[in-house]
Backbone:
């Protein structure tokens, strides 16, 4: 068949398809307008049920908490640990101040009972539950009561060398979080001094989980102290942290680097021309870690280490502050531009896990800590358009693009 005839048949078919596309597009456009009006009607009708849905959610959460509390009283240790983990999960994923008002004494007695009599696994899970409860309560008399009741047990576990490293590390995080929320300056000085003493005693244990927890939690308490106080003790602190830069554990190395960066940051607030006596040696070590090519470590570990130490090196050499952002919801983004903010966020995330996002949206204390203002409400995550509106808008836009491409094909002409 001649080429020209084949082209003619193809062009007729394409024009017929274009006419069908135009008809479908017009029908789809009409359906878009109808669906938008329908969606607006449905949304207005559903506003009256919003309060009922929220009440049902609170009742469901309360019944789940009751069920998990009952599980913590089971004879099997495995069931008790599972109940504690489930309690942590439901309270991390949901900010429920109404439930806390009614059940805080029951939850406190549960944590105390398992901290006194449970094994290491139960104590570790109950410590994390205590941290989640304190974050739920925020800065209040109730959370202060929690901390006063629990801090003796937590400090005893921290100083007990017979306990597991995981339990002692969790005690460090909860103590740092509790005194960050509630404590005064004398409390901050006392707790950080205890942390430093434990850290020095574990300096010979490379890759220690406890050392990593102290190095990650210590800056949060120090960030609440006056900068001149930190500046006066900066030389001793940097010399302690510097020896952990040679650790075999990547978490310990990174924690030591971030702790040194925090000391520098606060000392520069007191003295803009601050440089420690070992500045060249510290900078050289940071540069070595930021360009690590040692084959003793895995490729993934080297890559992660280089990416983590580059901002620290840049801060020590040029004074460039770190920058990071977290999308809270579709209408708000958390931007962090200092080491103290980054390490505060890291501590909160260690305790809440993936539940950090709903707490950033609704938890009044966390929003105040990070300067996010008052909560935006339940509809903040929905964005500007509903799911159905987005679907029909995308369908109409796709049809319009198809029409435009068809018109362009019609207007093509051979150029000789």
Residues:
């Amino acid at each position: 068949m001649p080429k020209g005839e084949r082209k003619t048949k193809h062009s007729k078919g394409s024009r017929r398809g274009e006419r069908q596309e135009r008809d479908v597009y017009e029908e789809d456009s009409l359906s878009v307008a109808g669906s938008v009006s329908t969606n607006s009607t449905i949304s207005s009708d559903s506003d009256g049920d919003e309060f009922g849905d929220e009440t049902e959610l609170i009742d469901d959460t309360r019944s789940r908490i009751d069920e998990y509390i009952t599980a913590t009283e089971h004879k099997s240790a495995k069931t008790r640990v599972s109940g504690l983990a489930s309690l942590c999960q439901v309270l991390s994923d949901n900010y429920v101040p109404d439930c806390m008002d009614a059940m805080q004494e029951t939850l406190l007695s549960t944590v105390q009972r398992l901290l006194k009599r449970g094994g290491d696994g139960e104590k570790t899970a109950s410590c994390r539950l205590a941290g989640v409860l304190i974050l739920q309560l925020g800065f209040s008399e109730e959370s202060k009561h929690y901390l006063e009741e629990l801090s003796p047990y937590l400090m005893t576990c921290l100083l007990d060398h017979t306990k597991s490293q995981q339990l002692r590390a969790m005690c460090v995080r909860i103590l740092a979080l509790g005194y960050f929320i509630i404590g005064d300056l004398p409390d901050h000085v006392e707790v950080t001094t205890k942390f430093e003493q434990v850290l020095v005693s574990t300096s010979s244990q490379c890759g220690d989980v406890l050392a990593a927890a102290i190095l990650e939690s210590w800056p949060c308490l120090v960030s609440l102290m006056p900068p001149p106080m930190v500046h006066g003790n900066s030389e001793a602190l940097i010399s302690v942290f510097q020896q952990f830069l040679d650790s075999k554990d990547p978490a310990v190395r990174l924690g030591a680097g971030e702790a040194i960066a925090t000391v520098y940051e606060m000392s520069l607030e007191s003295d803009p021309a601050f440089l420690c006596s070992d500045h060249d040696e510290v900078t050289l070590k940071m540069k070595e870690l930021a360009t690590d090519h040692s084959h003793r470590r895995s490729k993934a570990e080297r890559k992660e280490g280089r990416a983590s130490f580059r901002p620290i090196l840049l801060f020590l050499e040029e004074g460039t502050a770190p920058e990071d952002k977290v999308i809270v919801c579709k209408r708000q983004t958390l931007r962090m531009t200092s080491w103290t903010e980054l390490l505060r966020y890291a501590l909160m995330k260690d305790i809440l896990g993936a539940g950090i996002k709903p707490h950033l949206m609704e938890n009044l204390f966390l929003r105040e800590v990070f300067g996010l203002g008052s909560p935006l409400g339940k509809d903040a995550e929905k964005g500007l358009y509903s799911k159905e509106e987005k679907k029909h808008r995308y369908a109409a836009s796709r049809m319009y693009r198809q029409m435009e491409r068809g018109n362009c094909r019609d207007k093509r002409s051979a150029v000789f």
About this structure: The first strand starts at residue 324 and ends at 329. The chain is about 75% helix and 5% strand. The mean pLDDT is 81. Strands lie at 324-329, 332-336.
